[in-house]
Amino acid sequence: MFNFGFVIEQALGHVTHYQNLQRWVAADADICPIWMPIGGGINDIWEYLPIIRNNWSLQVSIRARDAIKVARRTQPIDALFLHTQTLALFATPLMRHIPTIISTDATPFNYDVVGTGYNHKVGGNSLVERRKFLWNKSTYHTATAIVTWCQWAKDSLVADYGVPAEKVTVIPPGVDLAQWHFQRDKTENQLSSNPLRLLFVGGDFARKGGYTLLEAFRNGLNQYCQLDIVTKDASIERELAGIANIRVHYGLTPNSQPLRRLYAQADIFVFPTQADCLPSAISEAMAAGLPIITTDVGALREQVEHGVNGLIVPPSDTTALVNAVCTLENNETTRSAMAVASRRIAEERFDARRNYGAILTLMKSISQQYLSQRTAISFDHA
To answer: What is the C-alpha separation between 130 and 117, in angstroms, rounded?
Structure first.
């Protein structure tokens, strides 16, 4: 039996990753998990201390360190899984005694590339930035192994932080392919008579390109398309006046039946995001067998291949978005081929059973290697 600690950042798409990981860990009888979800909004001392209270990275990394220390008082931890690297900043002393995987969707350098969309300021005090870089670099090098969601992040670790390539394994977050597999049995008559159904899923409506999509509807898409919007941003209601054929859905949780129903009913997944790394919503759309229209930001080209399972348009380009929708609306054969390709790529790259299994296999491996090394050292000193 392995006692594994899972320290997971509770923000953005990491929450979905956390929930999916819980399911597959529960299916492994060899693992006794210690779950340590780390987020904000906690009424602790770090919410009130100057500097720390306004710095997400400092808050959650200190909470992660404290959570690991508390867990170790009740039972030994054979290996740690820290997602993301932000949580590991204050954990390096612990990581020297516990085999640890750092998991990340993007490095700080990656984040700087897409930072504008996250309201992230790049640059500033050069001395401070240098210290941040060295702190992150030390954290990466202290880890026993690193898992990245995408090749984009691995390349940055190797080129920007000097991490040996063999220390980094690309394992994207997975989707339950059985749960997200839908039968699409519309007849030819239904296809020709019903409006094209578009689906957009993005909690952060502005960053995910939602306003570009609304503008595209004002420019004519509403005449032959219906749009379902899933978001947390209730402020968009005032933007919908005068735009027909749009429905907004609030409060839908990851993997829920109402959310999956919308994917099952959609014809195209439209996601004109301005800043992202490797969004789970696109992986879900691929598993659901949908053609995808999106942008070339972050690692999205590792999900969507232009002309194969979707179309890629520039961010904030309303005209290009309208043209892409029209292209697919007018060609059912192309849509069908892209739908098949999306499902195929999901099966090849984003199978939850295989990908989460690979993470757990890696954790077992580093735990066993550490135990073997400790045993060998004990014999040497005997």
So the answer is: 23
Instruction: Give the CATH class of 188-349.
Output: alpha beta
Asked if 2-174+351-381 and 188-349 have one fold, the answer is: yes
Q: Give the bridge partners for 37, in sequence order.
A: 8
| Residue located via tokens 């990466």 | 140
> pLDDT tens digits, residue range 41-73?
888 888 888 878 888 889 999 999 999 999 999
Task: Phi first, then psi: give them for residue 221, nearest 5 degrees.
Answer: -65, -30
The answer to whether the CB of 81 falls within 8 A of the CB of 7 is yes
Q: Enter the CATH code of domain 2-174+351-381.
A: 3.40.50.2000
292: Cβ–Cβ under 8 A, 6 or more apart, which residues?
A: 268, 269, 270, 271, 282, 285, 286, 303, 304, 309, 310, 311, 338, 342
Determine if residue 25 is left, alpha or beta; phi over 0 gives left, psi from -120 to 50 gives alpha, anything else beta: alpha
Distance separating the N- and C-terminal Cα atoms of the chain: 27
36 pairs with which residues across the strands?
A: 7
Domain boundaries along the sequence of the chain? 2-174+351-381, 188-349
The pLDDT tens digits for 261-270 are: 999 999 999 9
